[in-house]
Batch of 2 targets.
Target 1
Amino acid sequence: MSVAGRPRPAHILSQTPAIRIRGLSRRFGNNQALSPMDLDVAPGEIVGLIGPNGSGKSTLLRCLTGVVKKDAGEVTVDGEDFASDGVNIRRRVTYSPGEVNTYGELTGAGHLTWLLRGRDQATHARALEVAEDLGLPTRSKVRTYSHGMKRQLLFAAAIAPAVRVRLLDEITEGLDPAMRARILDRLRADADAGAATLLSSHHFGEVDRVCDRLVFINEGKKLSEESPETIAARARGLATFEYADATAARDAHERFEAEGIDADPRDRRLLVRLGEEDPQRVLGLLLGRSDLPAPTSVVYGRLPLADLYHELYGEEAC
Amino acid sequence: MERTLRSYLLPSLLYAILLEVMIAAAILYWPDFEENIDTYGDILPFESVRKMVESISETGVAAYVNLQHFYKACNVLGTAAAVFFAVGAVAGEANRGTLELWLSRPVSRTRMLLERYVAGALAMALPIYLTSATIPWLLEQVGEEMSLSGLMLIATHESLFLLVLYSLAFCISTVTSRPMPVALGLLFLTIFQFSIYLVMEWTHYSWFRLADLDDFQTILRRGHLDVSTCGPLAVGCALLLGASLYLFHRRVP
């Protein structure tokens, strides 16, 4: 089920946030990597961070863990205020960085031990269990691992600790579809057990599948925060007309523009904005007119994430 | 800590073996050297080196050991070891892309850095103590003797001197991501410092004046460390370590 169609679990609405961010900002020289940002993530909720490269997703996650020092703002994670260099927060969260760089000279098991320093023995055993369940050769040196296997190793270390907050940056990047599905299933189960997850991703299929809410970021600013309800509301004002070919779509676009109807051409498709006043009536009128090119199909009430991305950023998602 | 210690163990062991081989060879050569000491004094090119030989001629095997082991082997190899162990501490992690992983573990940055600092410092200094401890036994083989306590005092002075260089390289490592150019730069600077030590007019501008034969002989004569030299060296180390901690807390991957 996609994020738009997923009902919000009742416990998400009722509890105090596991992650509470107020006015968090960070600047690197002249570049405002994060403008003052507010965000809450409830226990049991998976929030997807979406945005183009350099939009500030990773900086946000790094600031939450103290890997990058914040300039200003308040961060409370699992009831604990960010203090000192953030070690108190790092004890309460797991974080998996977006870059996959590992110590090739360590074995998989040794690397997990290194990653989980400061955690209890049960966590180490659980991480090993997860890694072996994913099919990783934990006795082999990490230098023999493929990119995807290293990613799985980081995931095993991120999912094993019994913490209530997980910060995951591109956790399924480089994985094959089957492995991606297994990882996402684990994440969903973890969230259902009460963990709050902030998931940065470029993969729409991934966020659509597991996220309860989406936060779109660009140039360090929160562009939009979308819940299933807001996506559904947006979808009610939009219809996608598909035509036999791009020429027909362009022709239809010109006719729509002449009529003052707001539409975006995308190859063979037209994303038509129906307006806020009774969109279904407008849609009925458009479809009933014989002077306009006839579409081969019309989709109404559903907004794919790629289209939402286009709406927010004005450019095609990769 | 365990991984850090393991990564330093092999280089430290090699460095210790090299020091031991050098001092063993030098001591076994002592009888020949002693016999021809006047000839050496005549043929040596630098006045500063001729003065060292004169000192050996006056005070005997202790000055010879101090020159060969502490001034020559420990200063040269020790400097290389100090730079090698320090410069990769943080910059090496950044260079291989593992800095973020390192920083994201639930350990405070102060502790992370201090562990690295101590591990590298031990890897640099322990071989000096260990090889110095074998000197009395080696001297017995050529019918000479030297007190272990005096050697340990000199080893402490030498380690403190090298620790300043180590701390400097360590501090630079906390702000850079390119360990190799920094290491090469520091090694060239060291070679330059060693070169100007040999020139009488410039010798006072060389940092090796802080750990030369005069210092070592003074320690042996007095039976304790020279506070006027060791004090500032210790303060220098502390300041550089403080600066490293300050910079490391602001470090981004």
Note: Chain A has two domains: 10-225, 238-300.
Target 2
Amino acid sequence: MQSLRILMSLAVPVALAIPAIAQSNAVAAKSAPAAKSTAAKTTPAKGYVAPRTPDGQPDLQGIWDTASITPLERPKELGTKAFYTDDEIKQYGKKRMNDLDRDRRDGSATQDLARAYNDGWFDRGTHLGRNKRTSRIIDPADGRFPAFTPEAQKKYDEFHKWFAANPGNSAEDRELFDRCLFFSQSGPPLVPGNYNNLYQIIQTPGFVTIYSEMAHQTRTVPITKREKLPKDVAQWMGDSVGHWEGETLVIESSNIRFNDHSHFGTQYDGMTDENLRVTERFTRTAPDMITYQATVVDPTVYTKPWTLELPMEKSTGPIFEYACHEGNYGLSGILSGERAREKEAAMKAK
Amino acid sequence: MIKKILSTCMLGAGLLMAAAPVWAHHAFAAEFDANKAVKLRGTVTKMEWINPHAWIHIAVKDDSGKTTEWMVECGSPNTLLRKGLTKNSVTAGMEILVDGYQSKDGSNRANGRDVTFTDGKKLFLGTSFTGASGEEK
């Protein structure tokens, strides 16, 4: 395990050098197969044509907000019902807000404890997604993540059993977001979290930059036909290249670094491995909205591909600073808490 | 006054692992002790508007007159600001009530389950449903 970490740390200077490699097209490696989207193709509203940047690309620039109370996975009782009616939105929206309300003190002691971080901590939106979807996962048809493969399920179970017994041996054993290393908001794919769900998109000739408010993670994606990075060069946000398909910016990513804790973030405890491929599609479907879709393919982890959709709504911002390391007592609190627990256990054993 | 009684002391550790949310550099069960429910009444000495989470510092006087300093963790400055709080919302000298959980390492840090002014008003107001489209934003 330790040797694996050392190997991974060696990837950092290589990762820093990537923009230069990208521009020089110097990498000779086999192209990763693109993830195939199984979701419906997104088209702009009838008659709408996105404005153009000075160099003629559809203009996606601005600050965009993905916060909404639409659940990532569809409630099971809805089956394959993909959209709400307006009346259902009113009813379900109120119910959903009540379900999410962390200032409530009703229910069991267990439920109360699960709301220990009060509502003041959360900024996940106060409305359902503008696409009227019943879930952010739109494929498979039941709006839920597909099953793991048996091998992946075994690995997942083993890791979680170990982690439950070893929640704080060292900082390196903690989640990537505990360590301020990586948050799911930046993708790929973009998976909104509990707060800081704003993005800024900036386009320059040959590049698109996606800047995430959460921990200020930035992906600068070349719009090019360059070769992918060699298979053994992996980065937390992967190796992304983009191209335009009509009105849609398509970004394909591979070489996504992984460990036991890389799993699409705080809203979904999934798994990834070296075979993860993500295809993202950004389409400006209205003056104040980008429709975002991302299809995830990983045949050694998931039994089927899955696709999520987010309406990205135009925001006036601003994006605020989120310096995750600045005054972060969380990690030291977790580790000192675990040391205290060990001491207590040792005293009891005497 | 805090009228609500916490009954979390009765919970077993296994149950906590199942219930505690794991997110955003905070694993409640790893950092705070559900068996150490605390109720604090104190005077704000300062509020630190720092990333990634703000902290309120309070001076708590016990029955013997001894004063102890406590730190109570809050949401991120971004979130608090968007919920309408400013640096003038919580200032030195204000008296507040904290109903929460002490850190596992026994230091005077707490997770504030409920944080209220003495008239019962919450410091951090929740949010209400605003519809489907977000057009009102």
Note: Chain A has a mean pLDDT of 86.
